[in-house]
Amino acid sequence: MNVGIKDVARVAAVSPATVSRVLAGRPVDPDMRDRVMAAVHETGYRPNLAARRLRSRHTNTIGLIVADIRNPFFTAVSRTVEAIAYDRGLRVIFCNTDEDAAKEAMYLQLMQEERVTGVILAPTREGADRIAHVESDFPIVLIDRAAPNASCDSVVIDNAAMAAKLVVHLHRLGHRRIAGLFGTDTVTGRERCDGYRRAMEECGIPGQVVPVPHEREQAQRVIAALLEDASRRPSALVVSNSVMLQSVLRVADALELEIPRDLALTSFDNEPWMEFVGGGLSVIEQPVEEIGRTAVTMLMDRLDHADCVTRRVVLAGRFIARGSGGRGVEA
Amino acid sequence: MNVGIKDVARVAAVSPATVSRVLAGRPVDPDMRDRVMAAVHETGYRPNLAARRLRSRHTNTIGLIVADIRNPFFTAVSRTVEAIAYDRGLRVIFCNTDEDAAKEAMYLQLMQEERVTGVILAPTREGADRIAHVESDFPIVLIDRAAPNASCDSVVIDNAAMAAKLVVHLHRLGHRRIAGLFGTDTVTGRERCDGYRRAMEECGIPGQVVPVPHEREQAQRVIAALLEDASRRPSALVVSNSVMLQSVLRVADALELEIPRDLALTSFDNEPWMEFVGGGLSVIEQPVEEIGRTAVTMLMDRLDHADCVTRRVVLAGRFIARGSGGRGVEA
DNA sequence: AAAACCACAGAGAACGTTTTCCCTGCTAGG
DNA sequence: CCTAGCAGGGAAAACGTTCTCTGTGGTTTT
After folding, report:
1. Can you give the residue ranges of the HTH lacI-type domain (chains A, B) (predicted)?
2. Which of A43, A52, A69, A107 best tests the B interface by mutation, with the highest count of B CBs <10 A?
3. Which of B6, B113, B123, B158 stands the most exposed, by the fewest C-beta atoms within 10 Å?
């Protein structure tokens, strides 16, 4: 039998209500407070969070639903969200959908049942569409993937502008055959693709967009098809994220292409190892901590201002030039 | 006001108890079952998990506490644990301690308050020591880091043997000055260090153990000190994990060392990018899915057999030879 | 000095379930 | 035909808190 608030109350010779007040930090006679605290330590009392949440009707819990935890971008954001949330006394329920809309729906349902305070969500494409129609009991902040007309608050980076930056970089280096590899399933992919297309147009060179599926085997097949014919091979690539980049590297390795001589690579996301392949890759670094922090802040803010208009925070990425393009950082 | 089980009961014209029974899948007249299900859909009822947990006294929740989610090894294990747990109808509370024993203690306390069913834990060194003395209300399964005499169930890999494998590999390639870089704060680091030491002895060459702190800046300073003096520089390294390896690469890059010509690298963990640096790195791949799966299984098993003796599962790693050492896999 | 107020403690309801207990009606066995 | 047994449904307690309401003692205000 576990020790409850009533046991503490008996030991401290006060009422359960008083124990509750002490624990909640409400004003209580110092004498009693000491007695209660002593009793808490003596009994080894630990509050039962289920009971607390049931009665108080707030769970102090946020859900964090990401599409792919193996993607270091999401790992990094998750870490930040977790750290900040716990700082603010919020618990985090962590969910990984693996880009599966059904799993995502299941998790959103679970969030309802948990009666979470709010949710931070990187939706699948279908999920993003559905969110617009469904109304949930809790506020949602979308991260990374959010259509400009989304019906929720969102925090994203300026994907189009950043993709353009990569194109311009490659163009300056003299590349004229620049292919763009983008995910088929996400808003983010489409935005980056748009930015790529427009930049290619402005540079006056024809774009070649390659839609890449999320699943690795399939992705590698698509990429192989793009690269294996030397005569039609692009000289440079804009790649949509670090996971896709790994598929590119594997295929390039199999085809014995040397980076960047046979193929110049640029990508979104900045992982430490990118410094060390192909003489250093030029990339767009996303402000992962700031994304996480902003998301939590927006969520908290939304709780206080339930019917404030929908807000969209667009953060800038950071272009990092490496390798043949010269070292350095450029905002 | 949210819809509760009573509302459903009223709509279906049955008692709340019956609704509860239907939802729990207990035997109920088919007619009533249909009425209840209809009412559930009509009202949009979602069970309140807090209430359910409070009353039923089981939370169907496991805690997963890892030391560093940025370490891809833990990311991979977490993903597996999450997937398997949800398959079995268990919720996962995910916690990241950042190698901070205080945070770890705080989280373990939280697990108590959540009344979790069990915990899977990759402890800090201090945590591992403390676990031995503390008695908790729930079973704990240690992963990755567990002293052989641990008082909990544990699932680990054969660190010493795997470290030895790396040493032997390098020795066969002709290396005689092989330094070993190991974490200072974990059982795992010490085990790998022991294996390294013994293997070096057996090869008849003097070992050079370099204790590397977890924090990146400090780690890089230590590594720089090891590598900067060309005359005393080892020709090969055994590195304890992929995070540490990144520090090594950064330092090597700054010192303009070419891998593997100036410095051969081998490491624990197998990340996709390791194929592409220094012509491919030879590594020990850990069976991450199996670790996760085994941990969950052991935890569940322990619930049924509370006073079964402590079990320790030791899994084999997989040696993957790449680069100058030749391609291929060897058990 | 009386009235009004304030601060704080205790009693008991309430949160939304599951579970226990009892009651009913049906079936089977003598 | 009567009774024992059984299956399933309803009433109400229980889970461990917080919250509301009331009461009391002391302080301020008029």
Report:
1. 3-56
2. A69
3. B6
Say whether both A110 and A217 belong to one domain: no
CA of B118 to C1' of D27 (A): 54
Q: How far apart are CA A291 and CA A276, in angstroms?
A: 26
Whichever domain contains A308, its CATH number is 3.40.50.2300
Q: Which residue segment(s) compose the domain that B309 sits in?
A: 61-157+288-315
- Checking each nucleotide's C1' against the CA of B54, the nearest proves to be D15
Residues A188 and A255 in one domain: yes
Digit-coded pLDDT (tens) for A96-124: 999 899 999 999 999 999 999 999 999 99
Considering the domain architecture, whether residues A32 and A124 belong to the same structural domain is answered as: no
Check CB contact under 8 Å for A93 and B91: yes
Distance between A110 CA and the closest CA of chain B, angstroms: 9
Amino acid residing at B293: R
Between the CA of B54 and the C1' of D13, what is the distance in angstroms? 14
Q: What is the CA radius of gyration of chain A?
A: 25
Is there a single domain that holds both residue A197 and residue A325? yes
- Specify the amino acid at residue B255: L
CB within 8 Å: A114 and B253: no
Can you read off the two tokens belonging to residue B60?
A: 């169907």
Residues B174 and B143 grouped into a single domain: no
Does the C-beta of B49 come within 7 A of strand D?
no
pLDDT digits (tens, 9 = 90+) for B51-106: 999 999 999 999 999 998 999 999 999 999 999 998 999 999 999 999 899 999 99
Cα angle: A26, vertex A27, A32; to 5 degrees: 105
Q: Are residues A279 and A167 in the same domain?
A: yes
Q: Which residues of B touch A91 (CB under 8 A)?
A: 93, 110
Please give the backbone phi and psi of residue B237, each rounded to the nearest 5 degrees, phi first: -130, 140
B window 268-307, beta carbon within 8 A of A:
271-273, 275-278
Nearest to A125 by CA among A160, A108, A157, A101: A101
Assess B51–A contact: CB distance below 8 Å, yes or no.
yes
Q: Do residue B165 and residue B175 come from a single domain?
A: yes
